[in-house]
Design a protein that fits this description.
Blueprint: H1 2-24, H2 41-46, H3 52-61, H4 65-70, H5 75-78, H6 81-89
Family: Belongs to the plant LTP family. B11E subfamily.
Pfam family, one: Tryp_alpha_amyl
GO molecular function, one term: lipid binding
């Protein structure tokens, strides 16, 4: 019976250790999907006021801005004056990459 109790105690300690490690790991980076920025096309291209869905998607993609800024396919858009204005209008700080 003592061996069984010791084994259960060890199992409990391992389970707690695994739970603590899992809680301390950082979440994976956001999924960068430039297609999610489609609702921001008007504001970025024409300087119109961003919609709620545009701002929501910008917030979700905020961790991807530096990737977009360094990608030749998207750099001119994310670095444009209108993009900066759109990001600011949504209350999102523009990252320094």
């Amino acid at each position: 019976m003592a061996k069984w109790a010791a084994a259960m105690e060890l199992l409990l300690l391992v389970a707690v250790a695994v739970a603590v490690v899992a809680a301390q790991t950082t979440p994976p980076p956001p999924q960068c999907d430039p297609g999610l920025l489609a609702p921001c096309a008007g504001p970025i291209f024409f300087g119109t006021t961003p919609s709620d869905s545009c701002c929501s998607n910008l917030r979700a993609q905020q961790g991807c801005f530096c990737n977009y800024a360094s990608d030749p396919a998207y750099a001119s858009y994310i670095n444009s004056t209108n993009a900066r204005k759109t990001i600011a209008a949504c209350g999102i700080p523009f990252p320094s990459c």
